Amino acid sequence: MNNNVFVSTGAFKTKNLNEIIKSCLDNGFYNLELSSGLDYISDTLESIKQHRNNSMRYLIHNYFPPPTQPFVLNLAAEEQDILQKSRNHCLKAIDLSFELGSEFYSIHSGFAFKAELQHLGNNFKNVNRTSYEKAYETFVESVRILADYSSSKNKKLVVENNVITRLNLVNDRNVLLLMVTADDLIRLHKDVSKDNLGFLIDLGHLNVSSNTLSFDKFKFIDRVKDYIVAFHISDNNGEEDQNLQFDNSAWFMPILKDLSFATMIIEAYKMEALKIQELIQIIEPIFTS
Questions:
Q1: Closest C-alpha among 241, 230, 231 to residue 207
Q2: Strands 197-202 and 57-61, sheet pairing
Q3: Can you tell me the distance from the alpha carbon of 282 to that of 6, in angstroms, rounded to the nearest whole number?
Q4: What is the pLDDT of residues 61-102, one digit of tens each?
Q5: How far lies 191's CA from each of 184, 195, 219, 243, in Å?
Q6: 60, 197, 223, 237: which sits with the fewest CB atoms below 10 Å from its CB?
Q7: In 3D, which of 188, 191, 156, 162 has the Cα closest to residue 263?
């Protein structure tokens, strides 16, 4: 398995981390992104540390490790308790990334509304909104704090682009989700002004958002390519983020071939080990062509 190809924990049918790690070891998937959606288990960190010297390499993404009491991580939250809880979670995740020898820690972009668990993946345009610019300012402050802390550990901090569907536009505008367009990402990079800040481009998010807001997804990539550290790779119908499997004809394959310096993270969901292996074999030739 190429060192630049990772598999997200979301790719597995189980939400039990011990079972996922066992499947990785059994099938030769030695690069694992530890992400959200996992069941809480008291020995989560012990499971990771037990296998880190057994060929396993890890990346930490956003909401990992799962907290005992679930909450929506929002680094742009107006509510001070949620904001502090979100920042503290990320600081601890950076510590874990350092301990595991991960190259970077990646985070989700913020929300300009009071996000609850039931909102994720659903229609949230009628929720209690906050000022988009205020949310942005809070997010910049959060990213700056985390980037500084990551830098002290010689790690990169990587921000993932958000996804907006037509269902969540308000008067045909995006006033709810930060970091959707190339302008958003470039503005963030300039305002945070930290050398270790980069981007994780979720190609599924990009496909949906470009259709929703009618922008060119290839020009998006071209504008932010100098800051790209990694990709989340999955496919969809262009209308919603479905985390579907892909093949060599996928629209983004030429992009990946041109940007093969980036870390590639397979994020199609709930697959058998054989299918995961097939997707790895689609991505790996990018690094030798």
A1: 241
A2: unpaired
A3: 13
A4: 999 988 888 899 999 999 999 999 999 999 999 999 999 999
A5: 11, 12, 22, 31
A6: 237
A7: 156
The identity of residue 265, as a single letter, is: I
Q: Which of 28, 35, 21, 14 is nearest to 230 (CA)?
A: 35
Chain mean pLDDT for the chain: 93
How far is 250 from 21, CA to CA, in rounded Å? 28
The dihedral built from the CA positions of residue 72, 78, 80 and 83, taken in this order, carries a sign that is positive
The CATH number for 147's domain is: 3.20.20.150
CB atoms within 10 A of CB 1: 19
Cβ contact 156:196 at 8 Å: yes
What span, in angstroms and rounded, lies between the C-alpha atoms of 23 and 21?
A: 5
Q: Give the SS3 label for residue 289.
A: coil
d(CA 18, CA 263): 24
Domain that holds residue 211: 5-287
Name which of 101, 208, 191 is nearest 155 in CA terms. 101
Q: What is the CA radius of gyration of the chain?
A: 18
Confidence band, pLDDT 50/70/90 cuts, at residue 125: low
Report how far residue 166's alpha carbon sits from residue 211's, in angstroms, rounded to the nearest whole number. 9
Which tokens hold the place of 20?
Answer: 């996922």
Residue whose structure tokens are 């958002």: 209
